[in-house]
Amino acid sequence: MTMTREFLLPDLGEGLTEAELVRWLVAVGDSVAVDQPVVEVETAKAVVEVPSPYAGVVAVLHGEPGQTVDVGRPLISIDDAGKSAGSGNVLIGYGTSEAATQGRKRRRKGQAAPPSNGVRPESVESAPQQALRVVSPLVRKFARELGVDLHSIKGSGPDGLIMRRDVNLVAQAEGHAAETGQAGQTRAAAGVASATPTSATDPSTGLPIASRTPVRGIRKAVAQAMSRSRTEIPEATVWVDVDATELVALREDLKRREPERAPSLLAFIARFALAGLAKYPELNTRVETAEDGSQEIVAFDGVNLGFAAQTQRGLVVPNIRGAHGMSARALDAELRRLAALARDGKAAPSDLSGSTFTLNNYGVFGVDGSAAIINYPEAAILGVGRILDRPWAVEGQLAVRKVVQLTLVFDHRVCDGGTAGGFLRFVADAVEHPGSILADL
User: Fold this and answer.
1) pLDDT at 175 over 60
2) Which pTM does this prediction carry?
3) Which of 12, 162, 306, 402 suits a disulfide with 16, CB 3.0-4.6 Å?
4) Is 241 a catalytic residue?
5) Distance CA 89, CA 51 (A)
6) Which residue would you say has higher pLDDT here, 12 or 430?
7) Which pLDDT value is given to residue 312?
């Protein structure tokens, strides 16, 4: 007896309530196995593949690519044809990797049955599809934008895994990276949806409208968070120029002696900021508002350190959980690991949420300073500008020093300027005299 099972969009975790359908990986009439990925969706945190908890034949696909589906709404209907459903591992990141290659399409009318040896007549085409080795949804998306067939690529990663560089090499060799493809790649790098050309005229300016770009996915999430931050948080900003000459010299010395283990300058500053938060815990809090309008300042026993990372999908904030107990070396390792996951689109929702204080290194963009927007609902964000050679007074004498600007944006509800200034001065002193501070950490 055939029974239709309706698979609802599962709870993706970390407070995510919706997802945008990017691409169906199956079609109506296809057979699917338990834990086989059936759809690629984009949330505010990442692009992920959702596995099916049921085995059977696809009956209905609820939605088209580009549509937004709420958690708990129908995603796909599957006729189980009397088959037993399996693992039920419907959370993102779960499911067997082999199951994705075990699905078989239902034989359509007029299609020859497969030979007894299990090889289908179209094996020349389908065998590479079954062996396709792609983990990152961003690689799939990159290949689509450049018009590259992933089945034609031999991956250079572990066990033949297809990497972004493999797609890029094929695109260059075959001439796929033409103007249209490059435009799509640029849009992807900006983290926005494809723009729709239009010939309409804007009534207020009288100028032709070149395009309209839907705000969705990561761009929508960023816009909502930033708007809420500016609307609800009465922020204030303090900044200071800092002589980082000794810190730069310290790192260069470590790099000479231990080239593979020398922490980055950002890791040192992160360590100083964590020490500052231990001294000024008011900045490691958040304000929560109850339904009756009353508010509480919630303090945390520990720090989850977020850091802003620019990716192809836009700005995300990975966070180092339990950062307060880590050394500069441990922080450096986590900064590199999480940044790589975010860039490759492999960061889990838990990696991209839950921070209690954020560090923003905008110096990598060649910027000296910035009044950053607080990462809602946190209470503060510390910005780090680029390090430049500048004239500086040292013991009454003019000298050229390595100078960096530190900027602290804070929620004025949790503390006053004295606390914010004290924290910033503490971090600045640590940057200027790292030896004495590191001796106490």
Assistant:
1) no
2) 0.62
3) 12
4) no
5) 7
6) 430
7) 79
DSSP string, 16-72: --EEEEEEESS-TTBEE-TT-EEEEEE-SS-EEEEEPS--EEEEEE-S-TT-EEETT
List C-alpha distances in Å: 19 to 44, 188, 214, 235. Answer: 8, 18, 15, 31
Q: What are 244-264's pLDDT values in tens digits?
A: 999 999 999 999 999 889 999
Let me know if 257 is exposed, middle or buried by CB neighbors in 10 A (0-12, 13-18, 19+): exposed
What is the DSSP code (8-state) at residue 152?
G
The verdict on whether 324 is a catalytic residue reads: no
Q: Options 2.40.30.10, 2.60.40.10, 3.40.50.720, 2.40.50.100; which CATH number does 4-110+121-174 get? A: 2.40.50.100
Q: Which numeric CATH code is attached to 230-438?
A: 3.30.559.10
Nearest to 102 by CA among 195, 33, 159, 178: 33
Indicate the domain borders of the chain: 4-110+121-174, 230-438
Please report the pLDDT score of residue 82 as a whole number: 54
C-alpha pair distances (Å), 302 with each of 273, 322, 349, 422: 13, 6, 20, 20
State what percent of residues in the chain have pLDDT above 90. Answer: 46
How far lies 133's CA from each of 32, 156, 172, 435, in Å?
A: 18, 10, 21, 48
Measured CA to CA, the distance from residue 295 to residue 436 in angstroms comes to 40
Could you give phi then psi for residue 313, rounded to 5 degrees? -90, -5
Name the active-site residue from 202, 389, 412, 433.
412
Per-residue pLDDT, averaged over 279-290, amounts to: 95
Pick 184 or 223 by higher pLDDT. 223
Pick the catalytic residue from 243, 416, 433, 440: 416
The residue to which tokens 């297809």 are assigned = 162
